[in-house]
Amino acid sequence: MSLAGLGCAGNGWAATVRVPSQFAGIQAAINVAQNSDTVLISRGTYAGNLVISGKSLTLASLYIVTGDTNDIALTTISGGSTILTIDASAGPSTTIRGLTFLDGGYQIENYARRVNILDVHFIGGGTDQMSFEGAGGVVRGCRFEGAGDDAIDVDNASDPVIENNRFQPEEIRVKANSPFVLVITNKDKAPEEFESHDLRIEKVIPAGKTIRVKVNGLKPGTYGFEGEYHAKTAKGRIVAE
């Protein structure tokens, strides 16, 4: 007997809501899903203009079940001025995984904290492909092709993550001459020192901890940073434009 059905509102159980076998469209599945549910999407092409708000969800292709990368390539969401908006009210474990975002304007605009964008393919699009708007999270294992503007764009506040001795994302774009805050999380099991000679910043980050660094407005240009204890691999840059 399968219990991978709709679930019941407020029952406290995480359920799987399937597209298109239960709902033809992704937004309808998002709307009925409860907190911590998974919206699981089979291969096909689906309409954009999607919004996640008010709950934590996993939005994913069958890749999370099969491990087959063809499920990423063949599960496509396309169209809309913004294909997917993650509202500030979305829960902190919201995860987007194993999907292809094609064309549209913005592909993902994220206004929430601590979301996960994993194994996603971004292709085309008229503006930014992955945009953080005063938001944060992890972008890992993604592929970016043919962005109309930036592949990853960060405005107002930034959230680079140190994981496996690397910064993610390695490039952060900010508005020139506008103050911003770097929120830096060390997910390694050992301390790391965030260092930028260009910015004159040195901060030790204990294992598993987060720091916040206020940065005054930067003149247009590129500013490097690194993890001093793993300088060969933990490198990144801030681009002010």
Written description of the protein model:
The chain has 241 residues and is mainly beta. It folds into two domains: 13-155; 158-241, Cupredoxins -  blue copper proteins (Immunoglobulin-like, Sandwich). It has three helices and 26 strands. The strands form five sheets. The chain has a six-stranded parallel β-sheet. The protein has a five-stranded parallel β-sheet with strand order 3-6-9-12-15. The longest helix is centred in the N-terminal third of the chain and has 7 residues, at 26-32. The protein starts with 15 loop residues before the first strand and ends with a strand. The model is unreliable at 1-11 (pLDDT under 50).
Brief descriptors of the model:
241 residues, mainly beta, Immunoglobulin-like, 2 domains, six-stranded parallel β-sheet, five-stranded parallel β-sheet, 3 helices, disordered N terminus
Helix and strand topology:
Layout: E1 16-19, H1 26-32, E2 38-41, E3 44-47, E4 50-52, E5 58-61, H2 63-66, H3 70-73, E6 75-78, E7 82-86, E8 95-97, E9 100-102, E10 106-110, E11 115-118, E12 121-123, E13 130-133, E14 137-140, E15 143-145, E16 152-155, E17 157-158, E18 161-163, E19 166-168, E20 171-174, E21 180-186, E22 192-196, E23 201-205, E24 210-215, E25 221-227, E26 235-240
Parallel strand pairs: 1-2, 2-5, 3-6, 4-7, 5-8, 6-9, 7-10, 8-11, 9-12, 10-13, 11-14, 12-15, 13-16, 17-21, 18-21, 20-26
Antiparallel strand pairs: 18-19, 21-24, 22-23, 22-25, 25-26
